[in-house]
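Re: the pair you flagged

First of the two:
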Amino acid sequence: MLRAVPYFIHESAVVDPPAEIGEGTKIWHFTHVQQGARLGQRCVLGQNVLVGPDVSIGDNVHIQNNVSVYAGVTLEDGVFVGPSAVFTNIRTPRSEFPRKDALVPTLVRRGASIGANSTIVCGHTIGRYALIGAGAVVTRDVPDHALVLGNPARLAGWVCACGLRLTGDPEAEAGARCPGCGRRYRRVPEGLAEVR
């Protein structure tokens, strides 16, 4: 008797063994998952996505169409990557002088969202629940809950875990507040932390 596979892989997608695919994950048209990649549970990989060798992707990650997640990139749980976002993994690439042994790691922390057509230069950490605006070019670490925009990306405000822009001053005694869900935040060395 045939056993049902606990994930979905479109017939046009390619998954190179050994790759780990979590339960409930969906891999759509023309996507390529390379050997050693680890995808968590309930992920969605859109059309024409590349997941490089040994890449680690957490649970509930959504990667939209035309994104390449190269070796050296780690996406924690709940990350969203918008269409055509770009990750790099070598600081000084040359075709004539391959530097595959010089990969520079990039870490995208839990719940962060990366906007469409943005570029994440390797060697940086995107903080928890940070929001990278569409088209931004990230050239430095991004704090937890930061909203960054532009080229190069600069701090433009703060966002809640639910994604809405915070009101108020996170450095004031009252802190910053989400106009949607009501969560409150204060400034900490890593960025912002929720006040409980």
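Second of the two:
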Amino acid sequence: MDIKNAKITSTFLGREEHGIFTFSIFVDIAGGSCCGIGNYALDYCGENNERVFRAKSAEAISQILDVVGVKSWEELKGKYIRVKDEGWGSTIKAIGNLMSEKWIDFDEFFNRK
């Protein structure tokens, strides 16, 4: 696994085409590659197929803002971060602050009870 610098080029926070509330962080990674990070469901399918927001999702968004060092989602674009890159074709599951040891590992976060 390599840790690489990346620039956030755009973001998405909202409902994707199937109605699932989610987020994406799009980055250009040092060395010439680019990708989208995230796409975790921030809600779930409840009774009668309505989408139900998870309280844990607000914590995820808050931690992303904290790791990047911004106060709002709109400030993410243009910021530099670090990513844990496991190679071509792998999913980036962790992002970190460019200058300090603040990280969020999305798999670890969302699988924590």
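Helices lie at 55-68, 106-111.

-B.
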